[in-house]
Design goal:
Length: 689
Amino acid sequence: MSKFRTLLTRDISWLSFNERVLQEASDPAVPLPERIRFLGIFSNNLDEFFRVRVATLKRMVEFGRLAKMHFEEDPAGILDQIQRIVIRQQEEFSRIWRRIKRELKQTGVQLVTEKQLTGREKKFVLQYFEQEVRSQIIPLMIESIPQFPPLRDEYIYLAVVLSCKDQHLPRKYALIEIPTGVLPRFVMLPSTNHEKRIILLEDIIRVNLPSIFAYFGYDQFTAHVIKMTRDAELDIDNDVSTSFIQQIEKALKKRKHGRPVRFIYDRQIDPRLLDYLIKRLNLTKKDHLIPGDRIHNFKDFMEFPDLIFQEKRHRRKSFIHPLLHKQPSITHIVMQRDVLLHFPYHDFNSLIDLLREAAIDPDVQSIHITAYRLATHSKVINALINAVRNGKKVFVVIELRARFNEEENLRWKTRLEEEGVKVYVGFPDMKIHAKIALIEKIVDGELKSYGFVCTGNLNEDTATYYADFCLLTSRPNIMADIRNTFAYLESNGMQQEFAQSCKTIVLSPFKTREVMLQHIHACIKAQKHGLPAKMILKMNALSDPELILAIYDAAKAGVNIQMIIRSICCAYTSHDSWKKAIQAISIVDEYLEHGRIFYFQYANQEYMYISSADWMIRNLNHRVEATVPIHDPILQDELLHILQLQLHDNVKARILDNSQQNRYVPTRGRPRRSQLQIYNYLYRKKYRA
């Protein structure tokens, strides 16, 4: 099988994943607030997909034949497939939303439009507009503007038609940006009974169109929401006279006016206005013109007001890891044994407490840590600042190009430097995606180290719904490798010998693919010699061609292969030439499955890793990633048990097959929902002293 004819198309596989998110919104067994949230997640995912992947494909189209070398089919063909799938998914989205609105109404909750207001509600809306909204909007009479104003990415607009009943004035067109950045999208209306009624900000503006345009003498107004999605890739130039920071700041400014990649409009929009907008915006059918319903930027519905529901969102509460519960010092425990935290089951505050202890421990000399995406009000940063104030040396490697977090990370860099933290910003040709920390202290006159390796971000906000792993450890071999990794990172990537000297931690871009291939080939060798061989691979995305081909070779040899892939899976899972098909599933549930585990068994040996890296070219070639082996047999068994719970999920698991149909795993016997089972398993878990 040739290399590029054996892979499923990455972008079509991603759309298949987003359809699994849509399935959650459609599932009547999912609580209503969560179903609304899943619609918001679907919308937000799609926005990012267009801003990044579709934008990339459009760029590839410009490269012509050269681009076709990197795809199973030409990028233009993939874009056509995307258009068809997205329109179909959008229709399904609309169907689900209509059903949810009916169910909301049955529970006494109604999202009303400007045409459904009672007299009392209309009076409230007029008053709210005058007090809160009017000063935040400036209508643009777009026909009189020689250069059409650029529609901002991530914003929605009301496109307005002004006309007269007696037609004594010619029609005019106007544009109003909806100020969701400064005002809430959802406004609760005054209620006199048990029904809770909500109106959207754009509908409040619709009610007030006669007042907004009173100056012009029109008496008829129609308004529909439009939205532009733009290319979000950062173009970093190679001007050596410009600092890396200045290049990123310059690229961020350009992003706001990136090329259009999608134009969404209300399918009920005035046809003449739509034609006018398409012409003025210089759009064509190739720019993904997507008709939709009246509501856009549905990602805001991820924050649909909880107060309206009698049953609150019932996320299970995180709990303290048993080994750390009621312990006076987390550091003391970690200096004695490995501790594996499972977020969001285990409380993320344990990680923050470890940093807080280091900040006040008089024996701690220094803290080195990486940062990719931080919480809005980061307790991690607060602990690091307090460490500096307590006389510790603190070194932070912050990745400024964490997509869509660039501006926030620039602000964190400034804040940290103002407090005396030594900040490194990574290197222009390599993203720093590893999540690691090194804390050094003097114990009885000897330098001791401890720290952690995480699969997810050091972000207490997302840690409440991202399922990740974090190994707290003081093992000398791991800490030596983390020290070498920081020596490499803090040299701006110049001293690669430090990274390449790592013996225990597997570091991208140096050894990850090589080490994983060695394990796969060892499985194949064992299987061919009649010895049992097994692989369990859990990750977010699988698209690296070389590793996929090696997996195919293992399947051809009869190796037992099981995969848990959350989103992109470019690998086929069955083929006539294979001795054993691959068992592959995807789990989409309350928590976002984000942690990576790589497990290999062959020649009576077991190897278990957790990692920040997916098996994608970008993670293996163009990012610094940390994959750490789990040595403790207790923790190996713990991870293996969790993998087995997920592999036997028959409630939230979908089958990943060659046709990407997202069929649920059949429910045979009792229902097994792995995230609930993992919670119960970890909650009851006992550890030997």
